[in-house]
Amino acid sequence: RTIGDRIGEAKASGNLGNTLKILGQFDEAVVCCQRHLDISQEQGDKVGEARALYNIGNVYHAKGKHLSWNMAQDPGSLPQEVKETLQKASEYYERNLSLVKELGDRAAQGRAYGNLGNTQYLLGNFSEAIAFHKERLAIAKEFGDKAAERRAYSNLGNAHIFLGRFDISAEYYKKTLQLSRQLKDQAVEAQACYSLGNTCTLLQDYERAIEYHLKHLVIAQELGDR
């Protein structure tokens, strides 16, 4: 501020916002991220503006998750305050998405689609969540980003469960399992086995369910995860 560096001030405000978000001080975080947004717009800095919109989305997303953790409920059956917070997150992600499309930033589009999928899932809009996660998946494949691809499959599996499409969920979870093995991520592999066990139970394929739950158990024991 002293040297009149507006772009520097914007970036510093954004960094403060992100740090306050991690500390759980969501309302203060929004103020700082909003400052980042205002200065970026005033300076015609489109990249900064996109980043600020994404960061504000993240603050509301984190706040919504934080509020809903205190109430163990299924996606969709949320108190009004949580719904409004997640809808705000979604609106900022949408604004970010249209701007990064304009800028031709595919990687940033992928992140926006993933977060839009997650917020729509929490809001109980499962069909919308699926559409966003499919976009996320396509971009992850474009970039050869296996970790993002794995997350997209997992999220697609979760959303289809709530639509009662257990057979489709099982296919997505199997892809999650394959990728977790490729990535040598045992914790995620265990999680995929657990999801597949539950899905096979829903499909009344109890033999397979037992196999997957046993695999989950073995990895949990190996990792010493009580």
Secondary structure topology:
Layout: H1 6-22, H2 26-42, H3 46-69, H4 80-102, H5 106-122, H6 126-143, H7 146-162, H8 166-182, H9 186-202, H10 206-222
Spatial separation of the terminal alpha carbons:
51 Å
Figure out the total of helices. 10
Q: Percent of residues in helical segments?
A: over 70%
Reading off the top of the CATH hierarchy, the class of the largest domain is best stated as: Mainly Alpha
Roughly what fraction of the amino acids lie in strands?
Answer: under 5%
Unreliable residue runs? none
Structural class, by secondary structure, is: mainly alpha
Radius of gyration (Å) = 20 Å
Mean pLDDT: 96
Count of folded domains: 2
Structure description:
With 226 residues, this protein is an all-alpha fold. The chain has 2 domains: 1-143, Serine Threonine Protein Phosphatase 5, Tetratricopeptide repeat, CATH 1.25.40.10; 145-225, Tetratricopeptide repeat domain (Serine Threonine Protein Phosphatase 5, Tetratricopeptide repeat, Alpha Horseshoe). It is 81% helix and 0% strand. It has 10 helices and no strands. The protein has helices at residues 6-22, 26-42, 46-69, 80-102, 106-122, 126-143, 146-162, 166-182, 186-202, 206-222. Helix 3 runs parallel beside helix 5 (106-122), helix 4 (80-102) runs antiparallel to helix 5 (106-122) and helix 9 runs antiparallel to helix 10. The longest helix has 24 residues, at 46-69. The model has no long low-confidence stretch (mean pLDDT 96).
